[in-house]
Amino acid sequence: MTNIVANEYGSMLFHGNCVTCHFETKDVSAPSMMRVKENYLRAFPKKEDFVAYMSRWVKNPNEKTSIMLGDIKKYELMPYLHYDMESLEEISAYIYETDFDKEHKGHK
Ligand code: HEC
Questions:
Q1: How far away, in angstroms, is 66 Cα from ligand 1 center?
Q2: Which CATH code is given to the segment(s) 4-107?
């Protein structure tokens, strides 16, 4: 479903909305997106599962369905954000496809 245009849209949404709290590679006020991705990839290696679970979770942040409970204890539960499901799926697909560590090194 994701094409280049959709992916750019996901990138734009991610950089506009998620990086306020989730730095790409550094844990600051929230776990870095690199670390979130590592946890999600371990639990959901397939893109469709990864995207489905992540977008549903962000739609309804919840301790019961969290796979990063330690981070809720450390930072508190992520607040609810007003996104529609389609945007969250684009963002999740972008996260799945992005090597944050490599991007970071590239940008320096
Ligand atoms: C206001 C700060 C804030 C913003 C904005 C934010 N997050 Fe988070 N997020 C957190 C914190 C803190 C945690 C760690 C605690 C937790 O898991 O709830 C977290 C955890 C997560 C998790 C792990 C969930 C789990 O299994 O526990 C995912 C996935 C996630 N964020 C995705 C996103 C995406 C995608 C966006 C942008 C649409 C985003 N976040 C925007 C603060 C934020």
A1: 10
A2: 1.10.760.10
Kindly report, residue by residue over 31-42, the tens digit of the pLDDT: 999 999 999 999
* Segments making up each domain of the chain, as ranges: 4-107
pLDDT in tens, 52-76: 999 999 999 999 999 999 999 999 9
The finding on whether 18 has its CB within 6 A of some atom of ligand 1 is yes
Q: What is the pTM of this model?
A: 0.92
- 12-15: list long-range contacts, CB under 8 Å, 24+ apart: 13/83, 13/87, 13/90, 13/91, 13/94, 14/91, 14/94, 14/95
- Please give the distance, rounded to the nearest whole angstrom, from the Cα atom of residue 49 to the centre of ligand 1: 18
Alpha carbon of 4 to ligand 1 centroid (Å): 25
